[in-house]
Design a protein that fits this description.
By secondary structure, this protein is mainly α. The protein contains 9 helices and no strands. The chain starts with a helix and ends with a helix. It comes from Flavivirga rizhaonensis.
């Protein structure tokens, strides 16, 4: 980032710290897309990246008055985005590891004794081929009967992200099973 860019950020931060709330609007315009890109680079999930960027702004707003070197706003703010992105991965991995302890085979195969055994096996194989985040949402929604809100709370994701993962998982299952 050029020294000119740093000077602009410094002035906007100083203006905001002095009570000019409009300065924050300009900071958001200058930085929000980069925050989303940085979070997406780490998370590989556009919805989660947007959530992280939004959450990062909350933290930035809460702590910006304590920023001692306003010229370093960019690196300070990106560090917040980076940390929140990594924490999100850790949280999701922890939740995923807890959920992996469930036995997918038993839950899916025991749904209905009268169902076609081949269809159950194919369904199980197809679910296992889905990305892990979609597997978890499918299992929680269909096997555990969680609502989208409960899934979003459990996995620490937005309801929109849970809905999106469920939709994409269903689409992949339909294509594979030709339903």
């Amino acid at each position: 980032m050029s020294s000119e860019q740093r000077k602009i950020d410094k002035q906007l931060v100083l203006d905001y710290q002095s009570g000019n709330k409009k300065a924050l609007v300009f900071l958001v315009k200058r930085w929000h897309k980069l925050f989303c890109k940085k979070a997406f680079y780490i998370l590989k999930d556009a919805d989660a990246a947007k959530d992280i960027a939004q959450d990062s702004w909350k933290t930035i707003i809460d702590k910006i008055n304590h920023l001692k070197n306003p010229e370093s706003f960019g690196s300070w703010a990106l560090r917040i985005v980076y940390t929140k992105s990594l924490n999100s991965i850790k949280t999701n991995n922890k939740n995923r590891n807890e959920l992996e302890n469930y036995k997918y085979e038993q839950d899916i195969l025991d749904v209905n004794e009268d169902d076609n055994e081949q269809l159950k096996k194919k369904l199980l194989q197809t679910v296992k081929k889905l990305p892990e985040n979609q597997q978890v949402v499918i299992k929680l929604f269909y096997v555990e009967d969680y609502s989208l809100k409960e899934i979003s709370d459990l996995l620490n994701i937005s309801v929109g992200t849970a809905k999106s993962r469920l939709f994409h998982a269903r689409e992949k299952l339909k294509l594979t099973l030709k339903i």
